[in-house]
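Problem: given the chain below (697 residues), write out its structure.
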Amino acid sequence: MGGVPTKRRRAVVPWTLLGLWIVVLAIAGPFAGKLSDVQHDRAVDYLPASADSTQVAKIQDELPGGESTELVLVYHRDGGLTAADRTTAAAQVARIDRGFDLTTAPKGVPSRDGATLMYPVASTAPGHDEKARDAFVNDVRDIAHDTGGLSVDTGGAGALATDASEVYGSLDGPLLYTTVAVVAILLILIYRSPFLWLVPLVVAGIADFLSMGVAYGLHQAFGTTVSGQSSGVMTILVFGAGTDYALLLVSRYREELRRIERPYDAMRAALRGCGPAVLASSGTVAVGLFCLLAADLNSSRGMGPLGAVGVLCALFAMLTLLPAVLVLLGRRVFWPLVPAYGSTPKVRRSLFAAMGSSAGRRPLTVLACGALLLGALALGVFSLPGSLRQEDTFTDKPDSVVAMQTLAAAYPERGTQPISVITPTGRAGETLATARGVPGVAAAEQVRSGHGWTEISVTASSPPQSTGETTTIETLRDRLDGKGSYVGGPSAQQLDLKDTNSRDRKVVVPIVLAAVLLILVVLLRSLVAPLILLAAVVAVWGASLGIAGLVFGPLFGFQGTDPGLGLLTFVFLVALGVDYGIFLMHRMREESLAGAEPGAAALTALRTTGGVIASAGLVLAATFSVLTNMPLVSLVEMGFVIAVGVLLDTFLVRTYLVTSASMALGRTVWWPGPLSRKPQPQQPPAQEPERTLAPAP
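Solution.
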């Protein structure tokens, strides 16, 4: 490329990049449209790969008829059911029995107070086809409907799965539109230009389209689990991380336009200046997310690669397509605040310079007070509600949740959803006898056999997900241990989710910390600085969960927390928090290499990068806060914790604590690298314009 004249290169390179992107999108387009076809939200897509309940779900697929869709029709009238109500219920159930291929004829079970009547209904006709299952559930609901003051609700595992599937299916549009709207508003406020905000937003949208195609390819090549949760988080990361990288690049590009005449040359200088830090930070985020591959939980293991794909596609777009578009549009894209060649930006009082100076006067005091504050906030973790139950997973109560609540109140003396036991057919009689002898088992019966396996349906004497039912499941597993049998079903799945998330935290957290620490050590040529950054992001994670503990129950009214909340928020906050730390520490190291004293280097780094990091943090927090408007409690909880964590990291930890720690330690912060041993007498750093909270025009 060295033989190409400079003038010609300025014209050819941007158009060549645009042409390459058209080719890339043409290739990715057909695959991106297929991502929704491989997105599944069945229980097995969220369950741990090695758990009993997962094996039960897989074997049920192989039994005659395939996976069973189990429902419970709940008829209820306050004050007691009438004879006409029972006749109506019997007629509706008979119609369902005639119209669908049910495993057994439904039998009514009245409650003791006579106000409720439940009919368990099960069919293997839908199999593992989610669309067929949803159609079956909705057809049953059409037949079993309210009449004359008699309320009819359809509950059970099948109804819950259908309601969850409808929620996940409705996320894509609102999630994307809301994210785009939030990012657009923030970019307009930051850039104060009627045109500039649109460029990174469109590029982020293109990156999102590309990520969907790559995600589909991952699924086809490696069987990566694609769920509604993981695809939604991927979109959030594309827009959040992509906009962050755009903010850094555009800010540096605007500076270079003031001192370099041609946009092409200014963009090259901008990429040389901020490109390495952007590459390092995005690489750290991607590596942190890939560490989720070590998780046993299918949903977590699938979210890691999809999240990394989102970040890397955003990086690719912002370092190739965005520069090309900006160069072709020229300076006029910044109108009305065009950075003229040879001009100087308006000098403003820097908020971050003032904040850094206040931290620099008493760094140890600031550090101690900040650590105490984060520690105090982290104590709120002890106020987090317990594990989220099935009926509490929705922010609004769908039909299936109403049915479960009615059942829990009407049948406190018995279980209302089956515990499934899968056993080798040769041991079916022995297993059935063992199950009937377990304390807490009200009934057990053989359901179907095939391919060497037999399914036994067990009814507990305690309500679903109660302490009594949990004890029954654990006792069943203990009695059947070593006999080739598996215990599953909806309640067993929730128990396995909780246990596996606990295991995954113990495995994944150390891997994430080790991987991120290694990258930081290589990047910063130091051991102390990376440890400071890691300690800071871990403290932010603890404080964010503590704040969640103070508001989830009292303010949001949540009855539980998702079992995967701790692990997923840890991975995201560590990866994304270190992302911003890299920008600050990398600039601090540049200043130190140029001969600045440690205190001056820290203050200069904060003054010159603080505004951009703050803008990026606001955008990232806003994109994750979009999840708090979604109808699933697990998404609301994750979005809240990550948004709060990003804000804490941006305005408290990064600004005060990391800066004050660096100033208090002096050159020790770069130990054992050469910067910790002797000054580096080089050219003084070039003076850069101060920034306010948002990048200066």
